[in-house]
Amino acid sequence: LSSAFSQGSLLAQVAQSQLNDLCEIIKWPSEILIPDGLSMVIEVGNRHVSPIPLKYFEQQRFPIISSASGRAYLWGLPSRDQQNIIAAAADLSENDENFGTSYSQIESAIEEVGLKGYCIQDYEAPIAGTRAYAVPLMQNNRSIGALTMPSLRDVLSLVEFEESILPKLKEAADNLSKELAL
C-alpha cells in the first residue's frame, strides 16, 4: 500500500518521464503545477535533470491569479468556475496593498492565454529577470493544471520561446492529456 503512495500521484507518475524527455529537447526545466485552494503548487518537475540549473527558484506555491501557471489553468475552466476563483482571490487580496490587480485585468490576462496559447509572467524574485511561461494542461476539455517552464528574460527571448520552445511545450501538454485520458 505504501509503495503506491511513495511513487506520487497518477499525474506525477505519468508526467515524470515525459517531463524528462521534454527537458532533453528544450534544455530548460519544466514543471506541472496543479491547483490547491487559491494557489498553484508544483506536482512534479524535472529540475534535477535539467542542464540549465534554475535550482535557486525554490518556491513551491504560487498565487492562482497572478502566476503564469494559475492563469493558464484558469483559462481552461468553465467561465463560472473562473469567476468564482477570481472573486475569492480578489476578496482575500482586498487588504493587500501589493495586490494592485483588478478583476478586469485578471480576466484580460486569462483571455490572452486563449489568444496566444500560453501565459507569461515576469518575476523579480528570487532573482531579477525570472520569467515563467505556462500552457494549460487539459483533460476532458477542462483544465487540470499547467505545464510551466521558468527561464530568464535576458537569456531566452520571447521570439525564441514562441518559435522553438512553445510548440514543444504544447505538444508535451497534449501528450500528457492523451495519456491521462486512457
Tell me what you see in this structure.
- The protein is of the alpha+beta class and 182 residues long.
- The chain is 46% helix and 23% strand.
- It has 6 helices and 6 strands.
- The chain has a 6-stranded antiparallel beta sheet with strand order 3-2-1-6-5-4.
- A hairpin with a 2-residue loop joins strand 1 (31-36) and strand 2.
- Helix 3 (68-75) packs across helix 5.
Brief description of this entry?
The protein is of the alpha+beta class and 182 residues long. Helix content is 46%, strand content 23%. The chain has a six-stranded antiparallel β-sheet.
Q: Give me the Rg, rounded.
A: 16 Å
Global structural class: alpha+beta
Largest sheet: 6 strands, antiparallel
Proportion of beta-strand residues: 15-25%
Number of helices: 6
Helicity level, as a percent range?
40-55%
The low-pLDDT segments are 1-5, 95-99
Q: What coarse outline follows from CA principal-axis ratios?
A: globular
Tell me the distance between the termini.
23 Å
Mean pLDDT: 83
Neighbour order of strands in the largest sheet: 3-2-1-6-5-4
Number of β-strand runs:
6
Topology pattern, helix = H, strand = E: HHEEEHHHEEEH
